[in-house]
Amino acid sequence: MEITLIFLVVVAIFVASAIKIVPQQNAWVVERLGRFHGSLLPGLNIVLPFIDRIAYKHSLKEVPLDVQPQVCITKDNTQVQIDGVIFFQVTDPKLASYGTADFQMAIVQLAQTSLRSECGKRELDRLLEERNDINRAVIAALDEASPNWGVKVLRYEIKDITPPDAVLRSMQTQITAEREKRAMVAQSEGKRQQEINLAEGAMTAAIRESEGQKQAAINQAEGQAQAILLTATATAEAIRKMAAAMQEPGGMDAVNLKVAEKYVEAFGNLAKQGNTLILPGDLSNMGSMVAAAMQVVKQSKA
Question: Which ranges of the chain have pLDDT less than 50?
Protein backbone atom coordinates (compact mmCIF):
# COMPACT_ATOMS: atom_id res chain seq x y z
CA MET A 1 0.00 0.00 0.00
CA GLU A 2 2.77 2.36 0.91
CA ILE A 3 4.67 1.47 -2.26
CA THR A 4 1.60 2.26 -4.35
CA LEU A 5 1.17 5.62 -2.65
CA ILE A 6 4.83 6.48 -3.20
CA PHE A 7 4.51 5.47 -6.85
CA LEU A 8 1.49 7.68 -7.32
CA VAL A 9 3.28 10.60 -5.74
CA VAL A 10 6.27 10.10 -8.03
CA VAL A 11 4.00 9.89 -11.07
CA ALA A 12 2.20 13.08 -10.05
CA ILE A 13 5.51 14.90 -9.60
CA PHE A 14 6.70 13.57 -12.94
CA VAL A 15 3.52 14.68 -14.73
CA ALA A 16 3.58 18.10 -13.05
CA SER A 17 7.18 18.56 -14.10
CA ALA A 18 6.44 17.47 -17.66
CA ILE A 19 3.50 19.82 -18.26
CA LYS A 20 4.35 23.48 -18.87
CA ILE A 21 1.72 26.14 -19.60
CA VAL A 22 3.18 29.22 -21.26
CA PRO A 23 1.16 32.48 -21.03
CA GLN A 24 0.20 34.45 -24.14
CA GLN A 25 2.91 36.79 -25.56
CA ASN A 26 5.65 34.84 -23.77
CA ALA A 27 8.39 32.51 -24.91
CA TRP A 28 10.32 30.07 -22.72
CA VAL A 29 13.71 28.76 -23.76
CA VAL A 30 14.29 25.05 -23.00
CA GLU A 31 17.73 23.52 -22.46
CA ARG A 32 18.16 19.76 -22.66
CA LEU A 33 21.11 18.54 -20.66
CA GLY A 34 22.59 22.06 -20.69
CA ARG A 35 22.17 22.64 -24.42
CA PHE A 36 19.60 24.74 -26.25
CA HIS A 37 16.70 22.54 -27.29
CA GLY A 38 13.89 24.89 -28.36
CA SER A 39 11.37 27.56 -27.38
CA LEU A 40 7.98 26.83 -25.86
CA LEU A 41 5.10 28.64 -27.52
CA PRO A 42 2.08 30.00 -25.59
CA GLY A 43 -0.26 27.24 -24.43
CA LEU A 44 0.24 23.68 -23.19
CA ASN A 45 3.71 22.17 -23.71
CA ILE A 46 5.33 18.83 -22.70
CA VAL A 47 8.95 18.59 -21.57
CA LEU A 48 11.06 15.77 -20.18
CA PRO A 49 11.37 16.09 -16.43
CA PHE A 50 14.89 16.17 -14.98
CA ILE A 51 16.29 16.35 -18.54
CA ASP A 52 14.74 19.52 -19.95
CA ARG A 53 15.09 22.77 -18.05
CA ILE A 54 13.40 26.16 -18.52
CA ALA A 55 16.50 28.32 -18.80
CA TYR A 56 15.03 31.70 -19.86
CA LYS A 57 11.62 33.31 -19.91
CA HIS A 58 11.02 36.23 -22.27
CA SER A 59 8.07 38.54 -22.75
CA LEU A 60 7.26 39.22 -26.41
CA LYS A 61 5.40 42.44 -25.60
CA GLU A 62 6.73 45.91 -26.34
CA VAL A 63 8.78 46.95 -23.33
CA PRO A 64 9.64 50.55 -22.29
CA LEU A 65 13.12 50.94 -20.86
CA ASP A 66 14.28 54.10 -19.12
CA VAL A 67 17.68 55.52 -19.99
CA GLN A 68 19.16 57.19 -16.93
CA PRO A 69 20.15 60.89 -17.23
CA GLN A 70 23.69 61.47 -18.46
CA VAL A 71 25.86 64.52 -19.09
CA CYS A 72 26.61 65.24 -22.75
CA ILE A 73 28.93 67.91 -24.16
CA THR A 74 27.72 69.83 -27.21
CA LYS A 75 29.84 71.14 -30.07
CA ASP A 76 30.09 74.57 -28.40
CA ASN A 77 31.37 72.95 -25.14
CA THR A 78 28.13 73.23 -23.20
CA GLN A 79 27.26 70.49 -20.74
CA VAL A 80 23.65 69.32 -20.82
CA GLN A 81 21.90 66.56 -18.95
CA ILE A 82 19.75 64.29 -21.13
CA ASP A 83 17.53 61.33 -20.33
CA GLY A 84 15.33 59.24 -22.58
CA VAL A 85 13.24 56.12 -22.98
CA ILE A 86 13.63 53.14 -25.32
CA PHE A 87 10.83 50.90 -26.59
CA PHE A 88 12.00 47.45 -27.69
CA GLN A 89 10.54 44.00 -28.34
CA VAL A 90 12.06 40.52 -28.22
CA THR A 91 11.88 38.94 -31.68
CA ASP A 92 14.16 35.90 -31.27
CA PRO A 93 14.12 34.21 -27.84
CA LYS A 94 17.23 32.16 -28.64
CA LEU A 95 19.39 35.17 -29.52
CA ALA A 96 17.94 37.12 -26.61
CA SER A 97 19.11 34.31 -24.33
CA TYR A 98 22.53 33.57 -25.81
CA GLY A 99 23.40 36.57 -27.98
CA THR A 100 24.51 38.74 -25.04
CA ALA A 101 24.74 38.37 -21.31
CA ASP A 102 22.18 41.14 -20.70
CA PHE A 103 20.52 42.59 -23.78
CA GLN A 104 18.77 45.35 -21.80
CA MET A 105 22.05 46.66 -20.46
CA ALA A 106 23.56 46.41 -23.95
CA ILE A 107 20.70 48.45 -25.41
CA VAL A 108 21.03 51.15 -22.74
CA GLN A 109 24.81 51.42 -23.06
CA LEU A 110 24.71 51.65 -26.83
CA ALA A 111 21.91 54.24 -26.69
CA GLN A 112 23.88 56.41 -24.27
CA THR A 113 27.03 56.16 -26.38
CA SER A 114 25.17 57.08 -29.57
CA LEU A 115 23.43 59.96 -27.79
CA ARG A 116 26.73 61.45 -26.61
CA SER A 117 28.13 61.14 -30.14
CA GLU A 118 25.12 62.92 -31.70
CA CYS A 119 25.21 65.70 -29.09
CA GLY A 120 28.89 66.32 -29.82
CA LYS A 121 28.01 67.05 -33.47
CA ARG A 122 25.56 69.86 -32.64
CA GLU A 123 25.57 73.18 -30.86
CA LEU A 124 23.16 73.82 -28.02
CA ASP A 125 20.58 75.69 -30.11
CA ARG A 126 20.52 72.95 -32.74
CA LEU A 127 20.42 70.31 -30.01
CA LEU A 128 17.17 71.72 -28.70
CA GLU A 129 15.70 72.02 -32.19
CA GLU A 130 16.76 68.66 -33.65
CA ARG A 131 15.41 66.17 -31.15
CA ASN A 132 13.76 64.09 -33.84
CA ASP A 133 16.98 63.85 -35.83
CA ILE A 134 18.86 62.71 -32.71
CA ASN A 135 16.18 60.11 -31.97
CA ARG A 136 16.45 58.69 -35.48
CA ALA A 137 20.25 58.58 -35.28
CA VAL A 138 20.15 56.63 -32.00
CA ILE A 139 17.59 54.17 -33.41
CA ALA A 140 19.76 53.66 -36.51
CA ALA A 141 22.75 52.78 -34.30
CA LEU A 142 20.67 50.37 -32.23
CA ASP A 143 19.19 48.70 -35.33
CA GLU A 144 22.68 47.72 -36.48
CA ALA A 145 23.48 45.83 -33.27
CA SER A 146 20.13 44.74 -31.85
CA PRO A 147 19.42 41.93 -34.38
CA ASN A 148 22.35 39.99 -32.91
CA TRP A 149 20.69 40.29 -29.51
CA GLY A 150 17.31 38.97 -30.69
CA VAL A 151 15.49 42.26 -30.05
CA LYS A 152 14.03 45.02 -32.20
CA VAL A 153 14.32 48.64 -31.03
CA LEU A 154 11.02 50.31 -32.03
CA ARG A 155 11.45 53.86 -30.77
CA TYR A 156 13.77 56.10 -28.82
CA GLU A 157 12.57 59.38 -27.35
CA ILE A 158 14.48 62.09 -25.50
CA LYS A 159 12.43 62.94 -22.45
CA ASP A 160 14.28 65.99 -21.16
CA ILE A 161 17.27 68.20 -21.98
CA THR A 162 18.51 70.26 -19.03
CA PRO A 163 21.19 72.89 -19.70
CA PRO A 164 23.17 74.47 -16.81
CA ASP A 165 21.56 77.24 -14.76
CA ALA A 166 23.77 79.96 -16.29
CA VAL A 167 22.77 78.86 -19.78
CA LEU A 168 19.11 78.79 -18.76
CA ARG A 169 19.33 82.38 -17.50
CA SER A 170 21.02 83.51 -20.71
CA MET A 171 18.36 81.74 -22.77
CA GLN A 172 15.62 83.40 -20.73
CA THR A 173 17.21 86.82 -21.28
CA GLN A 174 17.49 86.13 -25.00
CA ILE A 175 13.87 84.98 -25.18
CA THR A 176 12.71 88.12 -23.33
CA ALA A 177 14.68 90.37 -25.68
CA GLU A 178 13.32 88.53 -28.71
CA ARG A 179 9.75 88.89 -27.47
CA GLU A 180 10.24 92.61 -26.82
CA LYS A 181 11.68 92.97 -30.33
CA ARG A 182 8.69 91.17 -31.85
CA ALA A 183 6.33 93.37 -29.81
CA MET A 184 8.02 96.57 -31.05
CA VAL A 185 7.98 95.32 -34.63
CA ALA A 186 4.31 94.39 -34.33
CA GLN A 187 3.52 97.80 -32.82
CA SER A 188 5.36 99.65 -35.62
CA GLU A 189 3.64 97.52 -38.24
CA GLY A 190 0.30 98.31 -36.65
CA LYS A 191 1.05 102.05 -36.63
CA ARG A 192 2.23 101.88 -40.24
CA GLN A 193 -0.91 100.03 -41.28
CA GLN A 194 -3.03 102.55 -39.39
CA GLU A 195 -1.40 105.45 -41.25
CA ILE A 196 -1.88 103.64 -44.55
CA ASN A 197 -5.55 103.04 -43.77
CA LEU A 198 -6.06 106.69 -42.79
CA ALA A 199 -4.36 107.89 -45.98
CA GLU A 200 -6.39 105.51 -48.11
CA GLY A 201 -9.56 106.61 -46.33
CA ALA A 202 -8.76 110.30 -46.92
CA MET A 203 -7.96 109.61 -50.57
CA THR A 204 -11.19 107.67 -51.02
CA ALA A 205 -13.17 110.45 -49.33
CA ALA A 206 -11.53 113.10 -51.55
CA ILE A 207 -12.25 111.05 -54.67
CA ARG A 208 -15.85 110.54 -53.67
CA GLU A 209 -16.24 114.24 -52.80
CA SER A 210 -14.83 115.28 -56.19
CA GLU A 211 -17.07 112.76 -57.91
CA GLY A 212 -20.01 114.22 -56.03
CA GLN A 213 -19.06 117.78 -56.98
CA LYS A 214 -18.61 116.68 -60.57
CA GLN A 215 -21.99 115.00 -60.64
CA ALA A 216 -23.59 118.03 -58.96
CA ALA A 217 -22.06 120.36 -61.59
CA ILE A 218 -23.27 118.05 -64.34
CA ASN A 219 -26.74 117.94 -62.84
CA GLN A 220 -26.77 121.75 -62.45
CA ALA A 221 -25.63 122.27 -66.05
CA GLU A 222 -28.20 119.81 -67.31
CA GLY A 223 -30.86 121.61 -65.23
CA GLN A 224 -29.85 125.00 -66.60
CA ALA A 225 -29.81 123.63 -70.14
CA GLN A 226 -33.20 122.08 -69.61
CA ALA A 227 -34.53 125.37 -68.17
CA ILE A 228 -33.13 127.37 -71.10
CA LEU A 229 -34.63 124.88 -73.51
CA LEU A 230 -38.00 125.05 -71.79
CA THR A 231 -37.87 128.88 -71.72
CA ALA A 232 -36.93 129.03 -75.40
CA THR A 233 -39.66 126.58 -76.26
CA ALA A 234 -42.22 128.58 -74.27
CA THR A 235 -41.02 131.84 -75.85
CA ALA A 236 -41.20 130.39 -79.34
CA GLU A 237 -44.65 129.02 -78.62
CA ALA A 238 -45.78 132.43 -77.32
CA ILE A 239 -44.38 134.17 -80.41
CA ARG A 240 -46.14 131.71 -82.69
CA LYS A 241 -49.42 132.25 -80.86
CA MET A 242 -48.92 136.03 -80.99
CA ALA A 243 -48.21 135.91 -84.72
CA ALA A 244 -51.29 133.77 -85.24
CA ALA A 245 -53.38 136.22 -83.18
CA MET A 246 -52.10 139.14 -85.26
CA GLN A 247 -53.48 137.47 -88.40
CA GLU A 248 -56.97 137.35 -86.94
CA PRO A 249 -59.45 140.27 -87.29
CA GLY A 250 -58.75 142.95 -84.70
CA GLY A 251 -55.32 141.49 -83.94
CA MET A 252 -53.38 144.56 -84.98
CA ASP A 253 -55.61 146.80 -82.87
CA ALA A 254 -54.85 144.66 -79.84
CA VAL A 255 -51.11 144.87 -80.58
CA ASN A 256 -51.37 148.70 -80.89
CA LEU A 257 -53.07 148.84 -77.52
CA LYS A 258 -50.52 146.57 -75.89
CA VAL A 259 -47.58 148.56 -77.27
CA ALA A 260 -49.09 151.80 -76.03
CA GLU A 261 -49.59 150.27 -72.54
CA LYS A 262 -45.99 149.07 -72.41
CA TYR A 263 -44.75 152.47 -73.59
CA VAL A 264 -46.60 154.30 -70.85
CA GLU A 265 -45.58 151.68 -68.25
CA ALA A 266 -41.92 152.05 -69.20
CA PHE A 267 -41.97 155.80 -68.62
CA GLY A 268 -43.75 155.26 -65.32
CA ASN A 269 -41.01 152.85 -64.14
CA LEU A 270 -38.28 155.32 -65.09
CA ALA A 271 -39.94 157.92 -62.91
CA LYS A 272 -40.09 155.52 -59.94
CA GLN A 273 -36.52 154.13 -60.12
CA GLY A 274 -34.44 157.30 -60.50
CA ASN A 275 -34.28 161.03 -59.93
CA THR A 276 -33.75 161.72 -63.62
CA LEU A 277 -36.75 161.53 -65.94
CA ILE A 278 -36.17 161.01 -69.65
CA LEU A 279 -38.98 162.44 -71.75
CA PRO A 280 -39.58 162.11 -75.43
CA GLY A 281 -38.99 165.11 -77.66
CA ASP A 282 -42.65 165.59 -78.46
CA LEU A 283 -45.05 164.52 -75.65
CA SER A 284 -48.01 165.71 -77.69
CA ASN A 285 -47.23 163.38 -80.51
CA MET A 286 -47.64 160.10 -78.53
CA GLY A 287 -49.55 158.59 -81.41
CA SER A 288 -46.61 159.05 -83.78
CA MET A 289 -44.37 157.12 -81.34
CA VAL A 290 -46.84 154.31 -81.09
CA ALA A 291 -47.13 154.28 -84.87
CA ALA A 292 -43.35 154.04 -85.15
CA ALA A 293 -43.39 151.10 -82.78
CA MET A 294 -46.13 149.43 -84.77
CA GLN A 295 -44.10 149.96 -87.96
CA VAL A 296 -41.32 147.92 -86.36
CA VAL A 297 -43.81 145.19 -85.48
CA LYS A 298 -45.07 145.13 -89.06
CA GLN A 299 -41.54 144.89 -90.45
CA SER A 300 -40.85 141.99 -88.09
CA LYS A 301 -44.04 140.31 -89.20
CA ALA A 302 -43.08 140.77 -92.88
Answer: 283, 300
